[in-house]
Specification:
alpha+beta; five-stranded mixed sheet; four-stranded antiparallel sheet; 33% helix
């Protein structure tokens, strides 16, 4: 892509050189910045009464916001076509107001005065890295209205603004469509992965095996030589320890897992807390290799396998430890647990007041198909082989999506700072 014929130094490090004829201005001298202000929380409602109110970037989608609450009294507004910029936790997320909104402290609105609204949107996207760099704060990083107003942006001649915005609209739409197709491909691959597991752990690997009714409604028929057993007959189940923040005398300060650490199939040990355990509790709640870990609350039934990710670890009472008997293959039951969780089996039996809880009593009564141990091992190896292929394909597609997003970001930055000349491209394919 061709550059402009001549450039000059912008005097702003992150912008670099700009085309001759362009100016550099602080945002406050070209457009208007309105910092949000939150009303009293007593004024909030979810009844669509008053004005739709945006608290922060949690209300953002890919382009237009999706408000979750309304307020009868609003202090600061964003008008239709204002650019909405997140100023904290995290900084730099961008949306466009598709109607009038009240805005809270987590947002500011940038109103077009000299810039086209759509071009202002692309400018805001290009500011992301610089805004994050200047953010300050200990609990969370944030930027002030002064920080936003004093951001330098290119002041592009009006004759070029339209061609640049038209070009970026077309190119980003093309990139977004390609990303969307790849994301749909990932969803199909995930469905294929789930189908592989479902077929293998409920029907086995022999398509010619005689079948019988499992008497488990959602499974239907299973191979005739398989058994059906409640979990309590094939595993030992331990619900974790209640949180203990003080040493009660002779206690030991040890790491433990919470429900937040339990992902599908794998444990996340990036944020492991510690609490106090007695000598007896160290024995009762310690994790051993190949223990299954099942979320008791939240997304009930989410299951991981412990692979000794850290040397010594225990469990809190939001996690069940399931130790399979020697006649059971741990991986077969890991896959089966994940299938049950994703099919909503655990959710359907969970106790619920406000938040679902998968109690030990409910879990141990859950019924599982149980093939002979040799067949369990064969099924596990088959699933590992087949899902590895799918996972590798998903990983490749995710990398492609990442590269496309990087290209999209770089393209916007290069165009709005004049590194490439798109004046003749604004109406071309």
């Amino acid at each position: 892509m061709k550059p402009y014929p001549k450039y000059k130094d912008s005097g702003v490090e992150w912008i670099g050189k700009v085309p001759e004829g362009w100016e550099i201005k602080k945002l406050k001298y070209s457009d208007k910045v309105i910092m949000g202000q939150s009303p009293s929380s007593d004024d909030y409602n979810d009844l669509n009464v008053g004005f739709p109110f945006l608290q922060g970037n949690a209300d953002f989608t890919s382009l237009y916001p999706n408000p979750r609450i309304w307020c009868e009294t609003v202090n600061k507004y964003a008008e239709k076509n204002d650019v909405l910029l997140s100023v904290r936790a995290p900084i730099g997320a961008v949306n466009i107001a598709d109607r009038k909104y009240g805005i809270g402290r987590g947002l500011c609105a940038i109103r077009s005065i000299q810039s086209l609204s759509v071009l202002l949107f692309y400018f805001a996207l290009s500011l992301n890295s610089e805004l994050k760099r200047i953010g300050t704060g200990s609990t969370y990083t944030a930027i002030s209205i002064v920080d936003v107003e004093n951001m330098f942006i290119p002041n592009i001649p009006p004759a070029e603004q339209k061609s640049i915005s038209t070009y970026l609209d077309r190119k980003t739409t093309q990139i977004d469509n390609l990303i969307s197709k790849k994301q749909k491909l990932i969803e199909l691959l995930k469905e294929e992965r789930a189908a592989i597991i479902n077929q293998a752990v409920t029907k086995g690997l022999n398509p010619d095996a005689p079948m019988k009714d499992s008497e488990i409604e959602w499974i239907g028929e299973i191979p005739a030589h398989w058994e059906v057993k409640k979990l309590k007959y094939i595993a030992r189940i331990t619900l974790g320890k209640m949180l203990t923040n003080v040493d009660k005398g002779g206690y030991h300060y040890r790491p433990y897992l919470r429900a937040q650490n339990i992902n599908w199939e794998k444990v996340n040990v990036e944020d492991v807390k510690k609490m106090w355990f007695s000598k007896d509790e160290l024995h009762q709640y310690r994790l051993n290799k190949n223990d299954l870990l099942v979320s008791e609350g939240g997304e009930v039934g989410r299951t991981s396998m412990w692979d000794e990710e850290i040397e010594e670890c225990y469990i809190q009472n939001s996690v069940h430890k399931v130790t399979m008997k020697s006649t059971c293959d741990h991986f077969f039951f890991l896959y089966t647990f994940c299938l049950f969780g994703q099919k909503g089996v655990f959710e359907s039996v969970a106790s619920r007041i406000s938040i679902a809880h998968l109690t030990k009593e409910k879990l141990k009564e859950t019924v599982f198909p149980v093939p002979p141990i040799e067949e369990q091992e064969g099924i596990s190896k088959f699933i590992e082989m087949e899902t590895t292929k799918v996972d590798q394909t998903i990983s490749k597609v995710e990398k492609q999506i990442g590269l496309l997003k990087e290209y999209r970001t770089a393209l916007i930055s290069e165009v709005v700072t004049g590194k490439i000349d798109v004046r003749d491209e604004g109406s071309n394919g």
